[in-house]
Every structure is written in structure tokens, then in C-alpha cells.
Amino acid sequence: MADDHTKHRKWFFGVVFLLALSGAISAVKIVKELPGYNRELPFYLETGYIGVGDMEESQLFYYFVESQRSPGQDPIMLWLTGGLGCSVLSAFFYGNGPVEFNYGGYNGSLPTLHLNPYTWTTGLSIIYVDAPVGTGFSYSTTAENYAVDDYKSSEQTYEFLRKWLMKHPQYLENILYIGGDTYSGIPHPMMVEKILNGDELISLTIIACRSSNSELSADIVYHCGRLLQGYVLGNPKTDDYIDDNSRVPFAHRMTLISNELYKDAKEACKGDYVNINASSADCLTYIDEIDDMLVDIDVMQILEPLCKTASSRPVESMKGNRRSLEDYKGFLAAQAKPAYWCREYNYVLSDIWANNKDVRAALGVRKETKGVWMRCNGTLDYTKNVPSTVPCHRNLTKSALRALIYSGDHDLSVTHIGTQNWISSLNLTVYSDWRPWFIDGQIAGYTVEYINNDFTLDYATVKGAGHVAQEYKPKECYEMIDRWLAYYPV
């Protein structure tokens, strides 16, 4: 046992030394104050870069928020925002992060911030990562490394996690979860598989446990060998066909199309609304009619107004806080006349905030590495070459992991019907049947629990939520994740 211990310790410190030489162990920024928040932050915020890929030419930027309860004991979660190409600041400001923007009375200056009462970091440490490279403040030193696909994205995030844990050995004994939303439903399950199939994280965890335990009992080895305990996915893109094919049935259930049109389309298309045979003139005709019915519907949340995408214009100099109010006239008009409000207007403030020079300095963003910051980068050189991660989920059902999958029930872009369909294809056993779950005595959604030996999967809908759920229903999603992490029924 002693020889084995010595061997692992030599291996660990050797790896750390090599990483230090290569630049992976670089300085981090402890952020105590954020521009827009008028006092010292009441939580621990760290930012930094982790180099991944050949010669670490791709630098992934992260924000680490430590649990505000018991960081040494609370779980830790790596979180990605989908999009594709959306910065993780979307989650940080509009989802489960610790702060939010103040919208009332905005006049075009640097946006101000307030604490999010429903942040998930109340009892959970979260590593927010701008991935893949090219999103947010992540960058590459070579043009060719901006070309990423689903496999490379998963590999790089896996590499990021390994290096981050080596850089933060104090968290090696914490329970780990992998989380994300929307397009994260593609790379995340692939990465979870990589963690289960690899031994790097397991080895590091056993070393950490041995440093505090002279004797390694079977129970200790079991606990220390299970750093990863589960994954969480919200409104997840999972299968090109299943997700897209569910939109027509969803539109019918929500009375966006008539019974007659749905019946005709279902018969003519034989239930396949994706692989439309050009020779089926009737099917094409009905699909065109359905498109006409949905063209003015906001697919992110079907009850909200459909608006043109709002964002601040590219800033040429980023000197000071001066902005032309003309750039934000839609946002400003929305405050004066609530009827003009669109959710997209809220996103304008993140553009203004992240493109401010004082903000970048406070976050430790490296100069000359990023031009205009965009909340969602639509110009990524990204190849979608994994059409489905259902096989990944099927493999994961053979493990002892826990999974939480949830959907906003008014999301037309990735519908709850499609998500339930691919979950059903896993052929799991229903442990707790479909039932409502409650917040403050009111139904917050519906949930069902599945099992397969030691694997468990909780699926939940969030009533009235869109894409993604926590942006629309923050209190409900906070209660949901808090219960699930505590092993309570949702």
C-alpha cells in the first residue's frame, strides 16, 4: 500500500510540475469587486484561463463561484451554456448565477447589478466555462484552432476539467456534477462518458483521500473513487431527428395548429416531419401551412412576443462608458412603454457590460485577445458532426450515476415532447410515476423518476418556462436543483 501511495504521489506531482512548465498552472484572478456592483462581492469569484489542445493554443476562460454555504463539503458543478456559441455569462447573469442586471431606469451607461436571490451557488460551487473556443472571452493563438466540432469540443472541455482540478486540488474530494443547457446536450454526455472511461480523475481523487487517511478502507476507496456522481441538462438538444420531429405534435398540443391540419399532415407525412420526401406533394403543402401558422411565434417561449434580435452595436474603441442611446432605443423605449418589451432587450446589457474596459480589467481578460464580445457568437467555425447523444445516455444508464433532465414546457425550440421521447427510448424502469411537483403550494411542473439498477434519472417539466427554463422560472428551478442535490424528491 505504501509503495502504491508513493507511486501515485510521484505521478501526481510530476504531472503538476510538467503542467507548470507548460503554462497550464497560470495565475488566476480573485475578483472582489465587479463594475456595476457598488460594494465588495459577498461570494468568492475567481476567473482565469486553462490552456487546452496542442501546445495549449486554445485558452478557455472560466468564472468560478464558490458555494456560499460549505464550499469544502458542497458539490461542485462544471457548467456550459449552449446556443450554439453563447457565452457562459448568459447563465451567470440570466440563469443560475449569483448576480443579475438592474433594468429599471437604465439610461445607456454601465449597467448596474444586484444579487440573484435564486442563485444555484447558495449550496453549489459552479465552474462556468466559455466553451468551445471562440465563445465569450475564450480565444486561440492560431486561426486553425478556432475550427471545432462536437468531438473536439467534448475533448477540450474534458481536458479543461482535468487541468482545473489539478490546479484546485482542494476540491478533489467534493462530489462532481456536469451541467449545462441547450446545445450542451451534445458535448456533455460525451464528456461524461470520457470521465467514466478514463482514470485520471479517479487517480487524483484517491490521492487526495490518501493524503488525509492513513488507512484506506473499502468504503473510503468507494467514496473517493466516485468523484463524478451525475449530470444535469436543461432543455437539452439531444437528437436531431427526435427533437425536430416533435415540434409539430407540440404545436398541435398547444393549439397553434388546428386538429384538421395536424391530422392531414400526420397522415400525409406518416408522422415524419423532418425527412420529407419531395415526391409527397401533400406532405410538403401541409408543412408549409404549419410553417405559416408558426412564423410569428417565439419558439423560445410561445407566450412571449416575437421580436427582432436586440444587441448593442459593435463598439469601436471601448473607451469609457459613453454610448449612443440610439443603439439601445428599443431597450429604452421598452421601459417607457411596457407593451414594446421583448426579452431580447435584456440581453443588450450584457453586451454593454462585457465590452467595458473596466469590466475586462476586473475580470482579468487578457488584452488584445478578444475584440467585440458577443453574448452569442454566430460566426463560430463549428461542425455539428454528432447527430444524437442518445447512445451516450444509453451507455450511461449502465453506470451508477444520477441524472436530472428538465424542460420548460413552453419551449418550441427543444420541446418537452422530444425530450420525453428519447428518454422513453432508453427503456428504463419507472420508479416514481408522473406526478405534479409543487412550490409554495402551487404546481411548478410535473416529474417522473426512472431507474436502471444503480442508475437514476429524474425528468421534470417547469410550468410556464421557455428555453432555457431557469431564465423564465428562477425560483422554481432553484428549488428543483436544491431538492435534487439533497436527494429529496423534486
TrEMBL record:
Residues 1-27 form the signal peptide. GO terms for biological process: proteolysis; secondary metabolic process. Pfam families: Peptidase_S10. Coiled coil: none annotated. InterPro entries: AB_hydrolase_fold (IPR029058), Peptidase_S10 (IPR001563). Keywords: Glycoprotein, Signal. The keyword Transmembrane does not apply. PANTHER family: PEPTIDASE S10, SERINE CARBOXYPEPTIDASE, ALPHA_BETA HYDROLASE-RELATED (PTHR11802:SF413), SERINE PROTEASE FAMILY S10 SERINE CARBOXYPEPTIDASE (PTHR11802). Belongs to the peptidase S10 family. This is Serine carboxypeptidase-like 18. It comes from Punica granatum.
